[in-house]
Amino acid sequence: MAKLNREKVDIVTVSNAANVSISTVSRSFNHPEKVSADTRKRIDRAVRKLGYIRNRAAQTIHGIRSGTIGLIVPTMDHAIFSELMEAFSRSVEAHGFSMLVASHGYDLEKEYAVTRKFLEHRIDGVALIGQEHSEETYQLLEQNRTPAISIWNYSAKSRLPCVGADNTRAGEMAAEHLLENGHRRIGLLFAPGNGNDRAQGRMDGARAALKAAGIDTPAEWTLQSPYSLSAAKRDVRILLEQTHRPTALLCGNDVLALGAIYAAQSMNLHVPDDISVIGIGDFKGSEDMHPALTTIRLPAQRIGFLAGEQLADAIINKPDHLPRVECAIALRARQSCRAI
Amino acid sequence: MAKLNREKVDIVTVSNAANVSISTVSRSFNHPEKVSADTRKRIDRAVRKLGYIRNRAAQTIHGIRSGTIGLIVPTMDHAIFSELMEAFSRSVEAHGFSMLVASHGYDLEKEYAVTRKFLEHRIDGVALIGQEHSEETYQLLEQNRTPAISIWNYSAKSRLPCVGADNTRAGEMAAEHLLENGHRRIGLLFAPGNGNDRAQGRMDGARAALKAAGIDTPAEWTLQSPYSLSAAKRDVRILLEQTHRPTALLCGNDVLALGAIYAAQSMNLHVPDDISVIGIGDFKGSEDMHPALTTIRLPAQRIGFLAGEQLADAIINKPDHLPRVECAIALRARQSCRAI
DNA sequence: TCAATTTATGAAAACGTTTGCATTACTATT
DNA sequence: AATAGTAATGCAAACGTTTTCATAAATTGA
Fold it and tell me: Inter-chain contact B61–A51, Cβ cutoff 8 Å?
């Protein structure tokens, strides 16, 4: 069966082989109950024999859903986004959709271009990361009435429906944990905030909580490092070489936190005895590090899964209003912070 | 411009607005030189005003390429695959393709199902990870004459053209490095080999090299752990609690190696003084760990990039034969192994 | 046994493009 | 001024489906 056939096999080929009209073949796929058992069997045999595969493009121009959903991320190779992607993919796939993915490298114009390209493919819906997008991107989506959601951050006044966590609160919680443990000299290490409202929100939250406790972090203790172990390590080493050192480091994400820990270790400083480190994210592996990382857990898998469900639901059932979903975050107090 | 219009806008809408026929509109997109500058300008204005976006599905059924490439991975949230994906995506995108992605969780039947689904979308090409696929998957691709490549492992006798590294050799090189450093008591820690020819190949290579040196690893020093820091940590702890301990651990990938290091650290064993650890992969961050991980570098980004180029080339230029591309691997001797 | 339903199938239009061919209006050549 | 050639455009067929409507065949009910 399914022999190698030089010519393309389409619904006509099948209908000929099964000695029925193309309408019947189509029906046998889409409304099998309307076709006699006998005919159906004959068609199935022909399909298998010829190796026929339906052409979704043809269905799509007929007004049927394309069966694709787009996911546009800043980058795929950050642990946090790949976890999210995997979960999102699994959940939309369970509803029969295929996933188109692209990354834009924190460039909002690129994001617009990719969105446009996806719309050419007539995606049934699209998910974007965060809520910082160009006005053109928002308009493009509204104009085409393409179901779209924003994932990763929660905000009560997001322009798109969103599924995510409150990054500002995450920053606050991290700061509060350090404060509760008696820290007052706190260094800040964050990823650049432009094109990245997650990082910005966390930073704002942390700053606000510290300010509320009467603490103003000096500029030389406020580090901005790209998302990379080596960059964080390098930058934190410089900070720690100063004579006047913070007792704790609040890091915008777990990778930066791990970099900070490595920096400390490489200078023979003990974490948490000599310096405490707290992260945000709770990436895979943060729990198993040594010392186990104290961090704020952002439920990436849950967010990805729920986002997929929401979007699939939006496409299939066309509710006229999509809710905003806030996913709970929580402190994971482990071994990288101590009370002073 | 681009007002919110209730009705769909297609090429007919545009042609009316610009007072030309649909043929001219189409030509103005695809063969602009065949349309007078004046008309083109008029069309462009209409396009912008209406917010028209070409329908690739319609082009596709006309026999034109769909402009999509599929990438099917075991899982997206292993560092190594996400790095690969990002590089692959960038490279196919540069050639104008959009990327469909799916994961199969090391289940070859799922892989077949996903491949089929992608074929329904009329992908122009597809990339699979590794060379272990079901016969049905191979036949499906051959039958449809869909350009396909296998990425990640190189093998001179692969059924599909491949772009990748020699995993067997990686295993050998890791073993050789330990042998050269005087180790004879070597523990093995690998991911399960079924549905994962990469892991299997590395293990075979390591075993062969050890055997050639007259070393037979006892069963209790041969660990099989799922790809996870915590599993590796747990399993290695058990191994290290034995009185008769290996002097070195050869790990099938860097995550397992890092887990092994954490296990050692948690038992107050020093790496490399008390035990040496070597990994395979050289993931992002392995270099920055503490101690910096000695490992065999597999160039994930380069593989992803070249694979994208190869596949795009196969689609665009239809050469009748695609070469196999082997990407060089190399030892990165850092601080986690010592000579004894 | 005949009319009235019901069931199974086919014919044809529609979906949004691209492109080969035909037509018209210029431009250049003599 | 007539002819050949070229540039710009339109018409209509084609791509592979789905679905509405019509029709034929089978079943039901009297």
Answer: no
